[in-house]
Amino acid sequence: MNRNEISAQAVLLEPRGPEEVISWAANSFGVVNVALATSFGAEDQVLTDMISKAGQGIGIFTLDTLRLPPETHEVMAATIDRYGVMIDVLRPDPEAVKNMVDQHGVDLFYKSVELRKQCCAVRKVVPLRKKLSTLKAWICGLRRDQALTRAGVGKVEWDEANGLVKINPLAGWSEQDVWAYIRKNKVPYNKLHDQGYPSIGCAPCTRAVKAGEDVRAGRWWWENPEHKECGLHTRRKV
Ligand code: SF4
C-alpha cells in the first residue's frame, strides 16, 4: 500500500468505528504483518479486548523498560489470564542500559530533556524499532484529545519515523468513551487509573494528576508540554 492509497483509506476510515478499523488493518496487511503495541493503559486495554473478540489473530507486543510500576505487571498478568493471549515482551539491550546508567546515573531523566530522551531511546525506541522492522503496520491507542502533541492524529497514517503504517482506531474517542467501554465490557485495567493516573508509563516518570489537569500532565511533569513524547509517537500525517 503506497502513501496515496493510505491517504485515501484515511478519508474512508475516518467515520468508521474502531472495530471496523481493526478489521480493515487485518484484511489489508495480513494478521502476521500488523500488531498492537500495548503499555496496558486504558486505551490499549480497549483495543486488546476488541482484538481478542475479533479473533483474527492480530499480535500484541509490549515494551518492558525495566522501570515499570508493579501495577503494570499486575494488569499484564490479568490481561493474559482474561484473554489467553500471547504477549511479546520487548526489553532493552542490557549492555546499552548498563553503559547509560554508568555514565549518567540511574535517574538521568531528571537532569535534562536530552538525557530523558536518551533513556527513552535506550529503553523504548530501540527495542520498538527492531520490532517494527518486522511489521507493515502497527496499532496504537492514541487519541486526539490526550495531548497537544496528539491533536492531529489520524485513524490511519504513514509513520515516517518508523517507515510503516500506523493505525489509531481510537483517535476520535474521548476519555469518557474509553471508560464507558471498559465498564460495559469489564475489561481489566491498571489500578493506578483509580489513583489519579490517567496516563501510565515508567514509575519514576509518571505521577498522579490533579482535577482539571491535562491527562498527560503526569508524564515527565518537569518538562514543557511540547517535549512530552518519548520518541515512540513522532508523527507526520499523510
Ligand atoms: S519514561 Fe522515564 S524511565 Fe522510562 S524510558 Fe523514558 S526516561 Fe527512561
For the largest sheet, list the strands in their spatial order. 3-2-1-4-6-5
Q: Main sheet?
A: 6 strands, mixed
Question: Nearest-angstrom radius of gyration?
Answer: 17 Å
> Could you give the count of β-strands?
6
Task: Let me know the CATH homologous superfamily.
Answer: HUPs
Given helix and strand content, the structural type is: alpha/beta
Bound molecules: iron/sulfur cluster
Report how far apart the termini are: 13 Å
The stretches of 5 or more residues where confidence is low (pLDDT under 50) are: none
Order of helices and strands: HHEHEHEHHEEEH
CATH architecture: 3-Layer(aba) Sandwich
Beta-strand percentage range: 5-15%
Tell me the helix content.
25-40%
Average of per-residue pLDDT values? 93
* Number of structural units classed as domains: 1
Shape: globular
Count of helix runs: 7
What name does CATH use for the topology? Rossmann fold
The CATH class label is Alpha Beta
Task: Explain what the structure shows.
It is a single chain. The protein has helices at residues 3-13, 18-29, 42-54, 70-83, 94-104, 113-132, 175-185; strands at residues 34-38, 59-63, 87-90, 137-139, 156-159, 164-167. With 238 residues, the protein is an alpha/beta fold. The chain has one domain: HUPs (Rossmann fold, 3-Layer(aba) Sandwich). It has a six-stranded mixed sheet with strand order 3-2-1-4-6-5. The structure holds iron/sulfur cluster. Iron/sulfur cluster is lined by residues 65, 67, 109, 116, 119-120, 123-124, 201-202, 204-205, 230.
